[in-house]
């Protein structure tokens, strides 16, 4: 039987899983924390975003009603580690207001909205790009939406499975068309990609340590090929 792209993507995932284990994302205790974490993680490492999340929690502010009513400056001073804190404070306040007004601060009510409609609503918020919206859809609402980031594009274009410079939509479509539509799988697949991209397939890739350099005979990375 002919080997398909689905087989290839599943084998790559299996190799990543075997190397790194399950990543247990999103590292948040509640869906709302995952939503706020997705905003705080824009353009910074998760380590920085996590420090800002903890500051909000320690101040007793990780609550949608409190954040919706808070002064932007009061939020900003708690999220300094996430950088761009004034902008992000605005986004957090505005998102929290919408979450309270339109979804009753209930993650189940938000998750009950049809995926495309909810994505459009999130994308209409100021400062919400596709990656942030999709992160919330996948990790807070458990919708089967594949999250794309710079690591995804870098790794899969180096691998030779995506063209260099593939767009967000093109990359997302590639995974959506070739993987089973499964939120659990999408959750851990993206997490594995972040793990590989941040530790091994960096700007200067450490191909000698890469668990997917050669997955099986013909399935091997175009860049890491020996
Ligand atoms: S073999 Fe090298 S270039 Fe290819 S995915 Fe692994 S680290 Fe990246």
UniProtKB/TrEMBL annotation:
- Official protein name in the record: Endonuclease III
Looking at the record, the residues that make up the HhH-GPD domain are 40-199
User: Could you state a single Gene Ontology molecular function term?
Assistant: endonuclease activity
Question: Which superkingdom does the taxonomy of this entry point to?
Answer: Archaea
What gene, per UniProt, encodes this protein?
A: nth_2
Which CDD domains does the record cross-reference, listed alphabetically?
A: ENDO3c
Keywords, sorted A to Z: 4Fe-4S, Endonuclease, Hydrolase, Iron, Iron-sulfur, Metal-binding, Nuclease
Q: Name one Pfam family in it.
A: HhH-GPD
